[in-house]
From TrEMBL:
Keywords: Membrane, Transferase, Transmembrane, Transmembrane helix. GO terms for molecular function: phosphotransferase activity, for other substituted phosphate groups. InterPro entries: CDP-OH_P_trans, CDP-OH_PTrfase_TM_dom. This is CDP-alcohol phosphatidyltransferase family protein. One of its GO terms (cellular component) is membrane.
Length: 193
């Protein structure tokens, strides 16, 4: 049972995403939105830590973790459109640039590996922190400003790093922490972390 905790935390994120959509469908959110989002954010932090400590961090679990993040943030994006449309429209071009570069990331990974990467880089962790701050600022305080700009900038840089990593690494692998780690793996002739 204990070894299934990381998978349960990942599953929890898959469940919280639709709850966030439901809470925002009428154009406003309750306090439950922020509470659920914080729980989802904490589950994202602790699923990997617990999985590594229990020795159950597998490629399948890491991929599920990545998909849970995608699900959660797609739900948040739609919720932002429902509740804070004026903010989304004000930031539409910077937001669309991040969406575009993320789509490029998907295409590059699908062409090269036939599946999305699951690197879990330091820059991804930083982007997660900035997305957390931007989401809490927007839904908790009706503010975007610096928090959203920072999330956009970090997201763009993070995605560029991961595109470069995909171009560098000869085969699909997971848990490659940075482009420097990818270069070392390539130079060793192996894509195993």
């Amino acid at each position: 049972m204990i070894k299934s905790i990381p998978a349960l935390l990942v599953g929890l994120r898959f469940l919280i995403g639709p709850f966030l959509l439901w809470d925002a469908v009428d154009g406003q959110t309750s306090q439950g939105f922020i509470i659920a989002f914080i729980v989802a954010f904490l589950s994202d932090i602790f699923d990997g830590i617990i999985a590594r400590r229990l020795g159950v961090s597998t490629a399948k679990l890491r991929q599920a973790d990545s998909w849970a993040d995608v699900c959660l943030y797609l739900c948040i994006a739609y919720s932002a459109w429902q509740v804070h449309r004026e903010i989304v429209l004000t930031f539409q071009w910077p937001l669309l640039s991040v969406v575009f570069i993320q789509l490029v990331w998907w295409v590059v990974n699908l062409i090269k590996y036939g599946q999305p990467a699951s690197y879990h880089t330091y820059s991804a962790k930083l982007w997660g922190l900035t997305l957390f701050a931007a989401t809490v600022a927007m839904f908790g305080f009706n503010y975007a400003g610096i928090a959203l700009w920072l999330a956009i900038i970090v997201g763009f840089i993070h995605t560029m790093e991961e595109i470069a990593m995909t171009l560098i690494l000869p085969q699909w692998t997971h848990d490659v922490l940075s482009i420097f780690h990818a270069l070392k793996l390539r130079d060793r002739g192996s894509a195993s972390p």
